[in-house]
Design a protein that fits this description.
The chain is built from 16 helices and eight strands. It has helices spanning 2-20, 23-29, 55-61, 105-128, 146-166, 171-195, 200-223, 229-250, 256-279, 295-314, 316-320, 328-345, 355-378, 385-408, 413-435, 458-465; strands spanning 40-42, 74-81, 86-93, 98-104, 381-382, 438-439, 452-456, 486-491. The strands form three sheets. A four-stranded antiparallel beta sheet has the order 1-2-3-4. A hairpin with a 4-residue loop joins strand 3 and strand 4 (98-104). Helix 12 (328-345) runs parallel beside helix 14 (385-408). It is globular and about 90 Å long. The protein starts with a helix and ends with a strand.
């Protein structure tokens, strides 16, 4: 009992000591609740569009010290604000580390003013010379490891098979060449990403150039009536590598929308040319051709290649000169709509129709789908690349639902095709509604200019029809008045 009494006495003494301890001691012993430091991202320009700065953009804007503290060892930079008096410039370095620079509010105002003035100056230059590359506010963000992933896929489907075809005379060498080319694509792409900043536009256009370049190489081999694996492997490998390099270099100063538009218009031009050729019978069998493909096949393929290159070159103007903002996600919507339009047109093709009619209907449906996608989707909202990908997945899911329903109801061929296409359109629209993207921001640079104009020139009309005075006598050319051009129609697209 004495032992228990002593124990309780000690316990009461300890409790009293804690209760009588100073408030400062109790505060030190209590757990500390730390308040988070909340930083919100802010734009580099006054328009609020340039949220990520890349080395390419900084060089174009001529940002130097002391206004711009970063040198050449960074890949991207963002600006954050924690209160109304200061901000933080956060830079991702090449080696993976992060550098933070404190920036006062006056310095933020000075930096944003300089960047805004530089952007407006470039927009003015672009207005005087419409052939220049894009210089608007929509700067492409870094692609990161997505570039490495796409190059590995190109190694598996293009570089590797082409190398294997070149070495096809030796089975072991062909198999080894495939694995070497496919594996080397990873290390080359990873080293490129480590040593420099690769934008999403460069990633998109490099991937487009690699796949389309391989297809162009195969078409050139067919036109040249190549014989053997090396005859196809060399042009395919050259086309894939050359297309990747050219796309990567060309997209250095492009926005994501411009790069995507380049691929979209290029594909649309090439497929339309093939459709026109098929409608004219360019791909019908020719029994007189003893070796290789028929001459008219070669003409159709060559014309399609040329048309695709022209569309690829002029494609960025769709995003750069439209009267509304065109993003990478918007182009994905137009792309999906064009493909679904081509599929939907086949629902009206009966079994007794000729191949020419089927090709013509598919081509017309594709073009109609592209126009519908531009009018219904692109003009209305601005979508990120991830939004466009999600909408494409929705279209694929809708096509699966349409195909499943056609099987359940045992529909015929035409009805099945129509249900699949209708399901794709419904899935595309529903997925786009789920995304809830922002409304269209308007034309690049905030200025809408007319792109197509028709004018009546009174002086030329008078010369053509003859100007007569009140008595019906023809007036001499030297005595006729000079009229200024009067535009009667302006169309912005």
């Amino acid at each position: 009992m004495r032992l228990i009494a002593c124990f309780y006495s000690l316990l009461l003494a300890a409790a009293a000591a804690v209760m009588l301890a100073p408030a400062e001691v109790r505060a030190q012993q209590a757990p500390v609740r730390r308040q988070p430091i909340v930083e919100r991202p802010i734009a580099f320009d006054s328009a609020g569009r340039l949220t990520v700065m890349t080395p390419t953009m900084a060089a174009r804007l001529k940002l130097v010290a002391p206004l711009w503290p970063l040198a050449n060892d960074w890949t991207e930079a963002r600006l954050y604000s924690s209160d109304s008096t200061s901000a933080v410039l956060v830079a991702q370095r090449v080696d993976g580390s992060v550098a933070r620079y404190g920036v006062s509010q006056p310095e933020v105002v000075q930096l944003r003013g300089a960047i805004s003035m530089a952007l407006l100056a470039q927009i003015a230059i672009r207005g005087r010379d419409s052939t220049r590359e894009g210089t608007g506010l929509e700067q492409s963000e870094p692609a990161g490891n997505a570039f490495v992933r796409n190059q590995v896929l190109l190694g598996l489907i293009a570089y590797g098979p082409a190398t294997s075809a070149i070495l096809s005379d030796n089975g072991a060498a062909a198999a080894g060449g495939y694995f070497v080319a496919a594996g080397a694509s990873f290390f080359l792409a990873a080293e490129l990403v480590r040593s420099r900043s690769v934008t999403r536009a460069q990633n998109n256009l490099a991937s487009y150039g690699g796949t389309r370049g391989a297809a162009v190489g195969a078409a050139i081999a067919a036109i040249a009536t190549a014989d053997g694996g090396a005859g196809f492997g060399v042009p395919i490998l050259a086309g894939a590598v050359g297309g990747t390099v050219l796309g990567f270099q060309r997209a250095r100063s492009m926005s994501d929308g411009e790069a995507s538009a380049s691929g979209f218009v290029g594909d649309l031009s090439a497929l339309t040319t093939l459709g026109v050729g098929g409608t004219l019978g360019a791909f019908e069998d020719d029994a007189t051709s003893r070796r290789g493909i028929a001459p008219r096949h070669k003409v159709a393929l060559g014309t399609s290649i040329a048309s695709g290159l022209v569309g690829h070159y002029f494609g960025p103007r769709y995003a750069r000169r439209s009267a509304y903002n065109v993003t990478a996600g918007d182009v994905d919507m137009a792309y999906s709509s064009a493909l679904l339009g081509g599929i939907f047109a086949n629902a009206f093709i009966g079994d007794g129709m000729s191949d020419r009619t089927a090709i013509a209907a598919s081509t017309a449906g594709m073009l109609g789908g592209a126009v519908a996608g531009d009018r219904l989707f692109v003009r209305r909202r601005d979508r990120r690349a991830a939004d466009g990908t999600l909408a494409q997945l929705g279209a694929a899911a809708g096509m699966l639902v349409g195909g499943g329903l056609s099987l359940m109801f045992e529909s015929g061929r035409q009805a099945s095709v129509g249900m699949i296409a209708a399901g794709g359109f419904a899935g595309l629209a529903l997925a786009d509604g789920v995304v809830q993207s922002s409304p269209d921001a308007g034309p690049r640079g905030g200025v809408m200019r007319s792109r197509v104009s028709m004018s009546i020139v009174p002086a030329a009309t008078a010369i053509a029809f003859g100007l007569r005075d009140g008595r019906g006598t023809r007036v001499a050319l030297s005595e006729r008045p000079v009229y200024r051009n009067v535009p009667v129609l302006r169309i912005a697209f």
